[in-house]
Amino acid sequence: MIYRIDLQLFARGPGGEDRTEKATPKKRREAREKGQVFQSREINTTMVLLFAFISLRIFGTNIYKRLAEFSEKVFTEYPMIEDLYMPDILLRVFIDGILVFFKAAGPVLLICLLTGLIVSYAQVGFLFTTETLKPSFRRISPLGGMKRLFSMRAVVELAKAVLKVVIIAFVSYSYLNGKAHAIMSLMDMDILGIASFIGITSVDLAIRICVALLVLGAFDFAYQWWEYEKSLKMTKQEVKEEFKQQEGNPEIKSRIRQKQRQLSMRRMMQEVPKADVVITNPTHFACALKYDEKISPAPVLLAKGQDYIALRIKEIAAENDVEVVENKPLARTIYETVEIGEAIPPELYQAVAEVLAFVYSLKGKTMAG
């Protein structure tokens, strides 16, 4: 029986939704804090080895001289020391050996250390986290191990291993084939010459291999970046949920804004009965003005509205005996230039004063009558 498996299922979210969206800055930041970063170990290893062999090529002669001098001292001077096998004498010999080693190999070790730090920093930057040290059952899960064994990463690692063998074999054959004549002449050299030739040839070959492996490292870096970006991808629902967490639920914010508008409208309508006059368009705009020299040297806009709100303002004005005056250009100008609670600008003083004078005169006649 043949079973067909949809491999896309492995790239889907918890709800079966495809992960098609790029990771948000928040998701990337959280992944980095957990130690989830991408870097090519091939580049790290190859660069450290390359600079190690270059350092050996540069400092090799110095290393040989220091070790040769110490070896000669071990076989000539140390045997002449009385009580050589006493603990304090042995300790001094051991310390001498350690110092010679670090003096000889110190530059190479330091260069390797700096190279590893620089290459890692160039790929990842500064990062300190303890998240990766925490125990996780997923790492020891048999099912997880089987998935990793038959994953794309396993295939890529196998391909890299094969390519390494091919690259090393090709570079080694090409280089040594060019040295065939020199290798054949080793039989005519003394032991010191043979050792020197083998050492220099080995280091030069290693440098060439490392340079060739940098090409593989570049491809590995590109693959690590692609795999990292793929692992961070999110579903549309995850992006929406994150947006809600950061910005708040749009539906809730909309309802809050609606409630705020309703409260603001209610407060504004409560101010209409206090107005001295309502200036209208007459059907499209309505502006309620109040003049109290104790509060403001100029009339203040208590309420304004358009269409349905304008109609409601006029109804409230009529219910509370507030005079309604029709003045189309003035009503539109006040509506567009003055905000609720603000005094009218100086350029409207004359027009508003005429309206208020008319309203006051009407009230005076009514009171007199």
Explain this structure to me?
The chain has a four-stranded mixed sheet, sandwiched between helices. With 369 residues, the chain is mainly alpha-helical. Helices cover 65% and strands 6% of the residues. The protein starts with 24 loop residues before the first helix and ends with a helix. The N terminus and C terminus are likely disordered. A hairpin with a 4-residue loop joins strand 1 and strand 2. The protein has twelve helices and four strands, in the order H-H-H-H-H-H-H-H-H-E-E-E-H-E-H-H. It has two domains: 199 residues, no CATH class; 98 residues, name from scop (3-Layer(aba) Sandwich), CATH 3.40.1690.
Concise overview:
This protein has 369 residues and is mainly alpha-helical. Helices cover 65% and strands 6% of the residues.
Which helices and strands, and how do they pair?
Blueprint: H1 25-33, H2 41-76, H3 87-124, H4 142-149, H5 152-178, H6 180-184, H7 191-232, H8 236-247, H9 250-271, E1 277-280, E2 285-290, E3 300-306, H10 308-319, E4 323-326, H11 328-337, H12 349-368
Parallel strand pairs: 1-4
Antiparallel strand pairs: 1-2, 2-3
Helix pairs in contact: 2-3, 2-7, 5-7
Order of helices and strands: HHHHHHHHHEEEHEHH
Q: Helix coverage percent of residues? A: 55-70%
Strand count: 4
Helix and strand composition category: mainly alpha
Strand content: 5-15%
Largest sheet: number of strands, sense, barrel closure: 4 strands, mixed
Number of domains as seen in the coordinates: 2
Globally, the shape reads elongated
